[in-house]
Design goal:
422 residues; alpha/beta; four-stranded mixed β-sheet
Length: 422
């Protein structure tokens, strides 16, 4: 498959606007603003079947339609570039090496939504991306692609980079909006949803970087061509950030629906040292781990839930037989405990308790009842938290305890790691 999103990101070829234009950049925006109505664009995105690439997988065109039907103005467009989950680094090549692709996607999206103000909410740990994006915005302003009269079509759209403070929860759209408004990043109760009551109570679309980077190609090449890529239920290309025990980790652009086996063995060169595969986290640390028996599962929003996991951000984390699963989830719970915003008790207290019990087990200071207590705590968090953070922490731990229960039991019985003892 020819790269669509990562095209030319392996070099510095598309960072400057002159290079981006020379390679066909901004043609989609010129067609959209010059020849199409906002309704035409929304219909095209709906026909393409594009689903949000931030993790939820909600149909993008349908989300835009909800906001476009709301009579309130101004409408806001927000790019979620707060890429903070362990294992997830798929948006970084776009932000640092192809910023105009994102900006072009946002201009087209803003025109479709009749939005005049946009924000890129950027991860606080990406200072280089901030410099690249701000330079690219200045270039687009100088060319008349941003500003108060884009292409002399009386279309106004201005764009600002908002640098986050490094809170993982601000990847959740309502917490992101709270942070943009100057408050502590904590999720809001839904409904109302941001498409009708988002930033300062106005209709707001929050789309991920990868989602918006798909828009120029769809407008330029048509929904039918886009829908022919990948699988029918989830068409298009997908970025997978692969890390862990593989020979060639990195970011890969592959058709949606490709299997884990193809990603690991065909594209990433297999497991380091030819060792046996022990497990794979398919979509970032908040998605349940899969055993090697699920290697032929298609990687998309429809098939992965049938195997007990989720596509999430597409962050594939690979473990071989030298990895201690108890240690992996003790580290994971440290992350969730640290990143819990503290708004609801099950998440605030529960993630701390799960981390504490796992630390005892991992250090050999556990009691015989710890595994049952750990399961009980996790089951009392799942489904009872304000936002998906606490729920995700509990569910990924329960999945690991189900698949690798013998490893947890060995730690408790022998006060040491089964992997190191082998």
């Amino acid at each position: 498959m020819e790269n669509i999103i990562l095209k030319k990101t392996g070099s510095s070829g598309t960072i400057a606007i002159e290079s981006y234009i020379a390679q066909g950049g901004y043609k989609g925006m010129e067609r959209a603003v010059g020849d199409m109505t906002p309704r035409d664009i929304i219909d095209e995105i709906k026909s393409s079947g594009l689903r949000g690439r931030g993790g939820a997988g909600f149909p993008t065109g349908m989300k835009w339609q909800f906001a476009s039907l709301d009579p309130k103005f101004p409408r806001y467009l927000v790019c979620n570039a707060d890429e903070g989950e362990p294992g997830t680094f798929k948006d970084r090549p776009i932000l640092e090496h192809n910023p105009h692709l994102l900006i072009e996607g946002m201009i087209i999206s803003a025109y479709a939504l009749q939005s005049s103000i946009g924000y890129i909410y950027l991860r606080g740990e990406y200072p280089h991306a901030k410099r690249v994006l701000e330079t690219a915005i200045e270039e687009a302003l100088a060319r008349g692609y941003l500003g108060n009269d884009i292409l002399s079509k009386h279309f106004r759209f201005n764009l600002t980079v908002h640098f986050g403070a490094g809170a993982y929860i601000c990847g959740e759209e309502t917490a992101l909006i709270e942070s943009l408004e100057g408050r502590r990043g904590q999720p809001r109760l839904k409904p109302p949803f941001p498409v009708n009551s988002g930033l300062w109570g106005k209709p707001t679309i929050v789309n991920n970087v990868e989602t918006l980077a798909n828009i120029p190609w769809i407008v330029s090449n048509g929904a039918k061509a886009y829908a022919s890529i990948g699988v029918k239920e989830c068409p298009g290309p997908k970025l997978f950030s692969v890390s862990g025990k593989v020979n060639k980790p990195g970011v890969y652009e592959l058709p949606m629906g490709i299997t884990l086996r193809e990603i690991i063995y065909d594209h990433c060169g297999g497991i380091k040292g030819g060792r046996p595969l022990k497990g794979v986290i398919p979509g970032g640390i908040s998605t349940p781990i899969l055993s090697p028996e699920s290697l032929d599962c298609p990687m998309d929003f429809v098939h992965l839930p049938k195997h007990g996991s989720m596509l999430g951000s597409g962050a594939v984390m690979v473990f071989d037989d030298t990895v201690c699963i108890v240690k992996v989830y003790e580290r994971a719970m440290r992350f969730f405990e640290h990143e819990s915003c503290g708004k609801c008790t099950p998440c605030r207290e529960g993630t701390a308790w799960m981390r504490a019990i796992l630390s005892r087990i991992e250090q050999g200071k556990c009691s015989e009842n710890d595994l049952e207590t750990l399961q009980d705590v996790a089951e009392n968090i799942a489904g009872k938290t304000f936002c998906p953070l606490g729920d995700g922490a509990a569910n990924v731990l329960l999945a690991a305890m189900k698949i690798y229960r013998d490893e947890f039991e060995y730690h408790i019985k022998n006060k040491r790691c089964k992997v190191n003892a082998a």
